[in-house]
Amino acid sequence: MDVAQFSRGREVKPLQHGGEKPSTIVAGPSRDTTIMLIEASNLSYAYREAGQSHSVLQDVSAAIAAGERVALLGRSGSGKSTLLNLLGGIDHPTSGQVTLNGEPMGLLREPALTHFRRRHIGYVYQRFNLVPTLTAAENIALPLDLAGVSRKEQDAEVLRWLDAVGLAGRGNTFPDLLSGGEQQRVAIARALIHRPALVLADEPTGSLDAQTGEQVLELLFNRAGDDQQALLVVTHSDDVAARADRVLVLEDGHLRNNGEEPPA
Ligand SMILES: Nc1ncnc2c1ncn2[C@@H]1O[C@H](COP(=O)(O)OP(=O)(O)OP(=O)(O)O)[C@@H](O)[C@H]1O
C-alpha cells in the first residue's frame, strides 16, 4: 500500500457525482444513468441445516450511489444482517453478484478479498465490537495500521478523529471504561478513518438509550456524508429511517420496495 496514496483517500476512486447527491431514486441496478457505487444483482442466499436447504434471501437486487444514505428495514429474521454481510463481502451469496467500485467481489480470492474489504468498507456493529485489549486510540487506528500507514500519520489522524467524535483526551482509555455511546463513537471513527467508499452499519443504535442513540446517529450520518460515502444502515428504528435518503424493506427474503423516500 502506498501510504501517500492511501492518505489522499481511496486507492480506487469511487464513481463521482460532482459532489452532488444523486437526484435520481434508483429501483434496482442500472435502471437509469446514475452511476452506482455498489450493485447487488439477483442475490440469493441459503444455508444448510440437518441436511436441508433453508432460503434466507431470494433474487434481491439493489444499488446504492456514492453519497447516498439508505436504511434497510424488515422484521426480525427477514434477512437484513445476511444481506449486509453479502454486500460487505463477509459472506458469499448462493447465487448472484455484488459489485463494489466496479469490482465483482465474488471473483476476489483471499487475501485479496480481505484487502479489498478493508480498504473500501467500514463496518459499525450493534455491540461496537471494539478490541478490548486496545485503547480507544489504538482501536481507531486499526484500519490505518492494517494498511501500513506510518505511525506519525496514524497518530495525527487519530487525534483528529477523537476530536471529531467528541472524545478528545480519551484516547488512552480502554473500551470497558467507556460508556456504550462512547464506545460506538470510537467504532464510528474506526469505520471512517480510512475513508472507505461504503459504510455498513448493523443496528448501530440498538444497544443504546434513545438520547445516546440519537447523538450517535447524528454523528454517523454527518460524518459519513463528509467524504461522499455511501451509508447502508440496518435498523428497526423509524427515526433512523427518517434520516435516510431512501428506504429498502426486506420481507420474507425479498425486497418489498426499492427506492421509496423515507417516512416524513
Ligand atoms: N448460516 C446460517 N445458519 C443458520 N441460520 C442462518 C444462517 N444465516 C442466516 N440464518 C437465519 O436466517 C434468518 C435471517 O437472519 P438475519 O440475521 O439476516 O435476520 P435479520 O433480519 O437481521 O434479523 P434481526 O432483525 O433479528 O437481527 C434467521 O432466521 C437466521 O437464523
Number of continuous helical runs = 8
User: What is the CATH domain class?
Assistant: Alpha Beta
Tell me the domain tally.
1
Q: What name is given to the CATH topology?
A: Rossmann fold
- Cα gyration radius (Å): 18 Å
Order of helical and strand elements: HEEEHEEHEHHHEHEHEE
Distance between the amino and carboxyl termini: 44 Å
Helix-strand makeup class: alpha/beta
Percentage of residues in helical conformation: 25-40%
Key terms for this structure?
single chain; 264 residues; alpha/beta; Rossmann fold; four-stranded antiparallel beta sheet; 10 strands; 23% strand; binds adenosine-5'-triphosphate; nucleotide-binding
Task: Describe the protein.
This protein is of the alpha/beta class and 264 residues long. Helices cover 31% and strands 23% of the residues. It has a single domain, classed as 3-Layer(aba) Sandwich (Rossmann fold), CATH 3.40.50.300. It has a six-stranded mixed sheet with strand order 6-7-8-3-9-10, with helices on both faces. The structure holds adenosine-5'-triphosphate (ATP). Adenosine-5'-triphosphate binds at residues 47, 49, 56, 74, 76-82.
Task: Quickly describe the structure.
By secondary structure, this protein is of the alpha/beta class. The chain is built from eight helices and ten strands.
